[in-house]
Design brief:
Blueprint lengths: L2 H24 L10 H24 E2 L2 E3 L2 H20 L8 H17 L6 E2 L4 H35 L5 H4 L4 H29 L6 H27 L3 H29 L4
Helix pairs in contact: 1-2, 1-4, 2-3, 3-4, 3-5, 5-7, 5-9, 7-8, 8-9
């Protein structure tokens, strides 16, 4: 099937899944009901992710190596974020995060269709570089879910503080559960980010080369922010707004480390 048709089907399926999750919250259905509706939505989300992967594969994997241009990289990270979220939702009540995440994935697919011809090929066959890339993208995906979770937690806290727990807020898990899920995501993402940085130090010849220096420095700053957050949680029991601020700060540095540098080099300076 033509990749454009696959992309369109993936976009439609992502948006349908997101709309179904939003309708589920609007109708005050509890986060983990025993009925089949939740399972059907998760199955639909996995179908969207499969279509996404099938549409992305031909432009991502090329004879010249992996094509990780700006839009392909964004699409790949969005795909893995969706897969991690859907997989986590099988056992934990985090599927509501799909309401914003799945449309973002749909938007990333649309961008790869609109801008299909840019190339940023990495040499294929080097498992050490592939391992570093895998850890990096997985870390970004998990921490992206954590950032969305932090925003949702901030909204929940605001409504509860103002004594306005509307239908949307009532449909979310209790704040203690939301915070516990947040720190599970941060802990997992931090471990993956540590592995990404370690493999980068070991396997990349000059990790502080001119075109990598800003990415490396910002990634280490993000690592430090998340390390302090986890230490503060363990030592002082940090939670609530403190945890939210540190999470969003760390993710902002991570966002700048990867997409900020790629945006400037590829789209502004056209240095591919």
């Amino acid at each position: 099937m033509n990749t454009i048709w696959l992309s369109c089907l993936a976009i439609l399926t992502y948006l349908t899944t997101s709309a179904g999750l939003a309708l589920r919250l609007k109708n005050n259905i509890v986060p983990n009901p025993p009925g089949k509706y939740r399972g059907r939505l998760l199955a639909l989300g996995f179908c969207a992710a499969f279509l996404h992967a099938a549409a992305l594969w031909p432009s991502l994997i090329t004879p010249q190596g992996m094509n990780l241009n700006f839009f392909n990289a964004a699409s790949l990270i969005a795909l893995l974020t969706a897969v991690v979220l859907l997989t986590s939702s099988i056992k934990q009540p985090v599927e509501s995060l799909g309401i914003p995440i799945l449309p973002i994935a749909a938007g990333c697919i649309a961008l790869t269709v609109i801008y299909p011809n840019q190339a940023h090929n990495l040499s294929g066959g080097h498992w050490k570089l592939d391992l570093h890339i895998l850890f990096s993208i997985l870390a970004y995906s998990v921490l992206a879910i954590g950032a969305i979770q932090a925003l949702l937690l901030a909204l929940q806290e605001k409504h509860l503080r103002n004594r306005q727990p509307g239908g949307f807020i009532r449909a979310l898990p209790p704040m203690q559960v939301m915070e516990s899920l947040l720190f599970q995501m941060i802990g997992t993402g931090f471990s993956l980010l540590s592995a990404a940085l370690l493999t980068g130090i070991i396997f990349i010849d000059d990790i502080l080369a001119q075109h990598l220096a800003h990415k490396t420095i910002l990634s280490f700053i993000a690592w430090g922010v998340f390390a302090i957050l986890l230490w503060g949680r363990w030592k002082f029991g940090w939670r609530g707004r403190t945890a939210i601020r540190w999470t969003l700060t760390g993710f902002t540095f991570l966002l700048l480390a990867y997409f900020g540098s790629k945006f400037v080099l590829e789209l502004i300076l056209n240095n591919v």
